[in-house]
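Record format v2
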Amino acid sequence: MSRAWLAVFAAVILLPLAVRHALASEIWIFAIFGLGLNLLLGYTGLLSFGQSTFFGSAGYVSGYLLKHYGINVFAALGIGVLVGAVSAALVGYLCVQRSGLYFIMLTFALNQMFYFIAYQWTTVTGGEDGMPGIGRPVLLGVDFRQPLAYYIFVALLFLVSLWVMKRIVESPLGKILQAIRENEVRAQAVGYDGARLKLLAFVIGGAFSGLAGVLYAMLFGIVPLEAIGFVFSGNVVFATLIGGSGSLYGPIIGSFVFIWLSESVSVVWARWPLLLGVAFVIVVIFFRGGCVEAWARFWSWRERRRMATRLAS
Amino acid sequence: MLYALMGLGLSLITGILNIPNFAHGALFALGAYFLASTLHVVGNFWLALVLAPVGVAVLGLAIEYAGIRPLYRAGHDYQLLFTFGLSLILSEGIIVVWGPIGFSQLPPPILRGGLDLGFTFYPKYRLFVMVMAGLLVLGTWLFLEKTRYGAIMRAGIEDKEMVSLLGIDIHRLFTAAFALGAYLAGIAGALTAPIRGLSPGMGVDMLGIAFVVVALGGLGNLLGAIAAGLLIGVAQSIVALYWTEASVAVIFAVMAAVLLVRPQGLFGIR
C-alpha cells in the first residue's frame, strides 16, 4: 500500500465531511472521467477533444433504460460502460488513422455530430431541456436516494476504476502505449500495430467515460444536453492538464480543483464560464505542467534551498 | 460560400500556425455583433460591413501577439486549452455585452425583398452574400496565389524552418496569418447577421462546421477548404429541403463518410 493510495483513501473518507455529498460524488465521477481521458492524453499522447461523446451517450442510453424500463443499477452501469466503449470504437476508428491537429479536430467534429443528434432527437433526449426523471433504484435493500449511500457507491466505483487503471498502465499494454507516445514509428518498427493499440486505448478510455456518464446521470437525475457538448469535453481536458497529465493521480487532483473552481465561481457570477475561461488562460500561461509538476518543482526548490543553507553554514 | 470563407480562414490558421483554433467560432460571432453595433453607431451598413471584420482582425492580431505567440513550443494540449478558454471568454463576453437573447438584423434597404430570377424567387440579400463571399474567397485565393506575401504564406505552410532560414520574420508571418484568418471569420459573421440573426450560440455552431470543412479539405490545403465548404453547403441545403432536423448532423455524416474512404480528406496529400 503506497502513500498515494493512503492519500486517496483518506480523501474518499474525509471529503463527504467537508463538502456536500452531491458535490463529493461529482468530484469522484469527474475523476473517473479524467482517468479515462488520461489514458489517452497522458499515456498514449492522444489529445481527444471529444470525450463527452461517450460520457453523454452512455448517460442517455442508460438513463433512458432506467427511466422507462426501471433496469437494475448494475445493468445500467454495465450498459453505460458498453455504450461508452462502442461509441469510442466508432469514433476512434475514424480518428486514430490521423495524428496531431487532425486527430483533435476529428474528435471534436464527431463530438459535434453526437451533440446535434442529441439536440434534434427531442422525443428521446429531450433536446435542449435534457432528459429528466432518471431514478436511482434500490439495490440489495440500500436506498441510493440517500446522498451518503450514493456517495459511498460512487466512491467505491471510483476506487475500483483507479485500481483497474493502475493495472492497465502498469501492464505490458500500458508500457506499449507509452512507447507509442514517445515514438510511434519506433514502436511500430518493433512490431506493435500502432493504430490498433491506439484504438484499444480509445475504447478503454470510452468505457471509463461511459461509467462516469451513467453515474453522473443518476447523481443529478437528469442528462443535460451539456453532458454531450464540447465544453464538457474541454473541461475534462482542463481538469486532466491542471492535475498533471503525466501522472496516474493527476486527473484526480485536477477533478478536485476543477469542480471546486467551477462551484466557487458559479456562485459569484451568472456568467461564470467567462471566469473559467480566464482560469484556463492563466493556467496555460503560468502553470503549464499542472499541480503534480508544480508540487514537484516546489519540493525540488525547497531541497535546493536546504542544500544551499547547509553549504553556507 | 460562407462555409468556404470560414474554412479558408481556419485552414490558414491551422496550416500556418499549426495550432487548433477553437476561438474561430467566437471570432465569427464577434464579427456579427460588431456589425450590429457599428451599424447602430455609424448608421451605414456598408461602412459597418467594412469596419466590423477589421475590428475582429485587430482583435485577432492582439490575441496572437499576446497569447498564442508564447505557446508555439507548448504542445497542442496547451494551445487547445488556451484557444478554448479564449472562446469561453469571448462567447460569455458577448452575453455580458449584448445580452443572452438573440436578435435579428435587417439587411440594408436596397437589399431587402426578393429578386425574380425567372425560374425561382430569391431573397436579394442572400444573393448579395453569395456574390460577396465568392469575391472574398476569390480575392483571398488570388492574394495567396499571385502576390509575394501570399507566396510566403503558402511557403510557411509547407516548411516553416526553410522560410525563416530565407530571412523572413516567421513571427510576423504568423501574426499576419492569424489576423487574416480572423478577418475572414469576422466578415463571414458580419455577412451572416442579416440572414440568421444574432445569438450567442452562433459561434459554436459555426466552429464545428469550420473544422469539418478543414478536415474534409485537407489541413492547410486552401483550395481544398474552398471546395469542401461548397460541398458541405450544397449537401446541407439539399438535405434541409427533405429533412430539416437532420441538416446539421448531415454535415458531420458527410465528413465521416468521406474520411472512411479517404482518411486524408478530399484533397489531402498526407
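DSSP finds eleven helices and two strands in chain B.
The interface with chain A takes residues 14, 18-20, 22, 67, 70-71, 74, 76-78, 80-82, 84-89, 91-93, 95-96, 204, 208, 211-212, 214-215, 219, 245-246, 248-249, 252-253, 255-256, 259-260, 263-264 of chain B (CB under 8 Å).
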